[in-house]
From TrEMBL:
One Gene Ontology cellular component: cytoplasm
Lineage: Bacteria, Pseudomonadati, Pseudomonadota, Alphaproteobacteria, Sphingomonadales
PANTHER family named in the record: BIFUNCTIONAL DTTP/UTP PYROPHOSPHATASE/METHYLTRANSFERASE PROTEIN-RELATED, BIFUNCTIONAL DTTP_UTP PYROPHOSPHATASE_METHYLTRANSFERASE PROTEIN-RELATED
Protein name in the entry: dTTP/UTP pyrophosphatase
Enzyme Commission number(s) of this protein: 3.6.1.9
Molecular function, one GO term: UTP diphosphatase activity
Job of this protein: Nucleoside triphosphate pyrophosphatase that hydrolyzes dTTP and UTP. May have a dual role in cell division arrest and in preventing the incorporation of modified nucleotides into cellular nucleic acids.
Organism per entry: Croceicoccus marinus
Record's catalysed reaction(s): dTTP + H2O = dTMP + diphosphate + H(+); UTP + H2O = UMP + diphosphate + H(+)
Length: 198
């Protein structure tokens, strides 16, 4: 019997790099095309869970040019939350500066959800929750980080795998989850689905 394919419902190179740490290479990449707007009053945890599930189901049902019986679809979503507030992906400098100023010197949470849609239509889900605290950031530090450009398209305006890591006082939880794919949870999910993981 042929082993099932794994289809990654994400265009993120970071997620592909993280999967490679598990010695897993997706057979195909098929980014999901869904509305990622939070619902009115939606909190970070249920929002990120909904996003991962909807992405997986969208691609599994053909939303990513993939037929449901072609293999397992793995999707993920990561959200940076300040209290009950979902921080945006920084698409411009003003948003990145606002996020960094808000996160300066305080704790925030990063929720990283994953969903694995099976050919039979079932969906397995897992999530990591990580607490991160930045040092108090000076204006010079924020300016330098903005100039580097790592914030572009990043949830909360920073990438922990880059220069921002030197500005983080401590972290409790999953480092890979903050990057975009919690490896412990992903490994457990894939093994439960029958994938051979080293």
């Amino acid at each position: 019997m042929t082993a099932p394919e794994l289809i990654l419902a994400s265009a993120s190179p970071r997620r592909r790099e993280l999967l490679a740490r598990l010695d897993v290479q997706p057979a195909r990449v098929a980014p999901a095309d869904i509305d990622e707007t939070p619902r009115k009053g939606e909190l970070p945890r249920p929002y990120v869970q909904r996003m991962a599930r909807e992405k997986a189901l969208s691609v599994a049902s053909g939303g990513g040019a993939v037929q449901a019986d072609e293999g397992f679809v793995l999707a993920g979503d990561t959200v940076v939350a300040a209290g009950r507030r979902i921080l945006p992906k920084a698409e411009d400098e003003a948003t990145a500066r606002e996020c960094l100023a808000l996160l300066s010197g305080r704790r925030h949470r990063v929720f990283s959800a994953i969903a694995l849609a099976a050919p039979d239509g079932s969906v397995r889900e897992r999530m990591s929750e990580t607490i991160v605290r930045f040092k108090v950031l000076s204006q010079q530090e924020i300016d330098a980080y903005i100039v580097g450009g790592e914030w572009q398209g990043k949830a909360g305006g920073y990438a922990i795998q880059g220069h921002a890591e030197a500005l983080i006082a401590w972290i409790q939880g999953s480092h890979s989850g903050v990057v975009g794919l919690p490896l412990f949870e992903t490994r457990a999910l894939l093994k439960a689905a029958g994938f051979v993981i080293g």
